[in-house]
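We emphasize that the prediction below concerns an isolated chain of 198 residues; any contacts that depend on oligomerization or on bound cofactors are therefore not represented. The input was used exactly as deposited, without trimming of termini.
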Amino acid sequence: MRTTQDWDKVTLAKWPEIMRAHDLANHHQYEEAETIFRDLSRQGSIYAKVFLAHMIEKKEAAGGQDLANKLFEEAAQTGNLYAQFQAATFCFRSDNFAQAYHWARESADEGYVPSIYLMGKLYRAGLGCEANFDYYKEYNEFAAKEGHVWARRRLYLDMICGKYGVLRIPIGLFQFISWLPKTLIVSYKTPDAPELQA
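Result of the prediction step, given as a token string:
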């Protein structure tokens, strides 16, 4: 299973600039960061295009969502698994569940674990697809086995709720309590929709 992504040559060659732009964004110097990401995106960096799309999405300016969607789509169409997952999560946040399903499926089929977890989420709720608890369990259990924090949390909650039988309730409770500190750390590090983060 794949949890990382091979990056394009521009992203690899320009990694110090990408990190500088991240640092600028973290210090609220958004215009300068956006300029760098926009320039790197034009040069062909998929990672820069994805991050630029995130910045534009958060601005909430007129037409920003359409432009962010365009950038996510362009990045995802390159076949980059991380970009496809980010496009799927953007579509999920935008309530465009059919497109979220499409991009999550593309990268899940290639073994990208965060997308596998998202596929389970979509099947569980019937978003962008017909609800199917068996598919949900299959995807979620696989992602949990691969170490995906939120998939494990969901698996243990399902056990506690008796969805794996009464005898699994105490196991789920024990596992959930022992896993809780890790989920809190991940939530702290990624406060924006942590259950969707890669």
